[in-house]
Amino acid sequence: MTSLWRRHRWWLTPTLLILPGAVLFAVVILASSVQSLWISLHDWDGFGPMVWIGLGNYRELMDDPQFYVSLKNNVIWLVMFMLAPPIGLAIALLVNQKIKGMRLVKSMFFIPLVLASVAVGVVFTWVYTPEFGLLALIFRAFGANAPALLSDEHFVTFAIVVAALWSQIAFCMVLYLAGLNNLSEELIGAGRVDGARGWNMLRHIVLPQLTQVTFIAIAVTVVGALRSFDMISVMTRGGPFGSSSVLAYQMFEQSIFSYRFGYGAAIASVLFVIMAVFITWYLTRIIRAEERGA
Amino acid sequence: MTFNRIERSLSRRTFLKGTAAVSAALSGFPIPAIAQSSEVTIISAESNANTAEVLRRIAADFQKAAGTKVVVNNMDHEADKTAIRNYLVAGAPDVCFWFSGNRMRAFVTRGLFDDISDVFEKEKYADVLGATAGSVTVDGKQYGLPTGGTLWGMFYRKDVFDEHGLTAPASWEEFLAFGEKCKSANLTPVAMGTKDLWPAAGWFDQMNLRINGLDKHFALMNGEMAYTDETLKPVFDHWEELIKQGFFTPDHTSFGWQEAGAFLAQKRAGMMNLGAFVRAAFPQQDLPQLTFAPFPVIDDGLGRYEEFSLNSVHIPANAKNKSGAREFLTHFYKPENLAAYLEPGGNVPPRNDLPASKDPLVNAAVESLKAVAGTSQFYDRDTDPDMAQAGLVGFQEFMARPERRDAILQRLEGTRRRIFKL
């Protein structure tokens, strides 16, 4: 028995360690992804029999103007969310100074991270409400009329992204604060001896040490932008007339409100492909970085 | 060595603790499991706090009389519309509240509501319900009980009308004149909030009933008429006229009906097309000022058709305690209980043996209904749910961007062809 174990443990140990994760991944991620793909090839209302229609859902999707609106909004989310890492870094550098009262400032920036995103959405909806919202009151103080941001098909997505950015920036700030605490004192000291200060210090000594953090911040931000759903659901329900919808919300709307699970699954599959492209790029970069490190 | 021993004794202690917890849990489990079979769970979605309170009281009375534990879970009204699709399939309550007509039918055809014809038979509900029994009947079987109806109309404040010398418009010309008068008095002629989409569809229903009548309206609802049909043109022409003249609340897509109702309550709007539940937006002391008039007549040659939506109560097919649920429904449906339940919301009773309400609005609605030639329920209750979703968005878009009419109607027509498989 022991000899058997001894002879095989070189492969048994890692297998046993990986097994729980692999099983969970297979059941929760792989199986349900495959099932989604399978459903997307059917006309199905979620209760009754599934009718095979091949690529019919995808063909319809290509002609659906709402699909392109959602896709465009996903791009807006993605691009605007990219502001979160640099702004988060800037705030982290600011609150990392040893100045009296900085702890208070730090916790103020930290607050949105504690709030549920649904709560953030509700609060921002009130801020944007025409006539009696905070924004309207501010505009009125200057004698102007605030635009009804959530009623304007061109501004609505930007207005929602601003609300979502608030907590995303806080998240990036926390990541960078952790990174700043792990800076090598020796490198900074050496840089100082060589006369580096201000911008040069940041650019050539601090930032290179934050590469890993930056990488995580960008990855989390991209995924956060692509799966944006809760804020839209709370603030506009995709409206006015679908102009603030994104793929994730359109998928929900089609499946739940219109009883079109096949069509919803097709949207999910497209979203999956978009995410897969990013994740592949992300993984190859990580692997390459690890190879270089090793 | 010592380290090991400490660890072992610790683990034994945690093990003992664990066993104690597990045995406690095991001995504790069967008790709620037994209780569950004689328990009736109810999911309601009352936005009116007083109605929810009455429902809880009725449930408590039933609990006392029948010795069955009743749990009432009151959900947010809009959230319930989404959640019901989940809970009917996984984790159904024993009793749930929903909407009769086509919306009920969607769940009946999917086998999610229990056939309660036996209760109908036993309690002889057909005799007291009359025509309203049709709204819960599919293929001769009953799948629910109508709870209360909402008669849609143009609601307004008497004091605002007196103050500005306004009268409820009876014809299209009077309606246009009414709008002009409102605007010169700095009032929005019609309060409108389309954030939840459906108020715009209600307006479409009213116009279509007044211009094309009930039969053509139902042809459209049943997918038999095209959205690009010529008969719909005057409906959108009239509607566009109102939009262009600034009849509706600006930026209406930012407001829910509650906020739009507040404009009416705050004397900032002339009228509002809604049911009596608009009272939820009114402070108690202002309620006596609230009254309504039918939507103005557009085509004199047509009978008076109105929107009358009936809510209903059902037993899910997956309910655990169906006999308990039936007992509760019978108790809930006693005239005195139903009357108490309908009182706070001002809903119109479906039973004809209830005493006259203390609420003048309800009695006015009951009177008004007697003169009605036929009723529809509501756009998203009368047509296919998939079609309804597309239509609701389309009407909201039309109200905000009337110039896109053709594109919107083309899109709806495409949706209709897909859904009704043409």
Question: Could you characterize the architecture of this molecule?
Answer:
The complex is a heterodimer of chains A (294) and B (422). Chain A has 294 residues and is an all-alpha fold. In chain A, 75% of the residues lie in helices and 1% in strands. Chain A has helices at residues 2-39, 56-62, 65-81, 84-95, 102-114, 117-128, 134-141, 156-181, 185-193, 198-209, 211-226, 230-235, 247-257, 261-293, and strands at 42-43, 51-52. Chain A has a two-stranded antiparallel sheet with strand order 1-2. In chain A, a hairpin with a 7-residue loop joins β1 (42-43) and β2. The mean pLDDT of chain A is 88. In chain B, strands 1, 2, 3, 6, 11 and 12 form a 6-stranded mixed sheet that branches. In chain B, strands 8-9-7-10 form a 4-stranded mixed sheet. In chain B, a hairpin with a 2-residue loop joins β4 (137-138) and β5. In chain B, 50% of the residues lie in helices and 14% in strands. The termini of chain B are far apart. In chain B, α18 packs antiparallel against α19. The A-B interface holds A 45-48, 60, 65, 128-130, 148, 150-151, 153, 236-237, 239-242, 253, 256-260 and B 82, 85, 89, 106, 110-112, 194-197, 250-255, 259, 385-386, 389-390, 393-394, 396-397, 400-401, 411, 418.
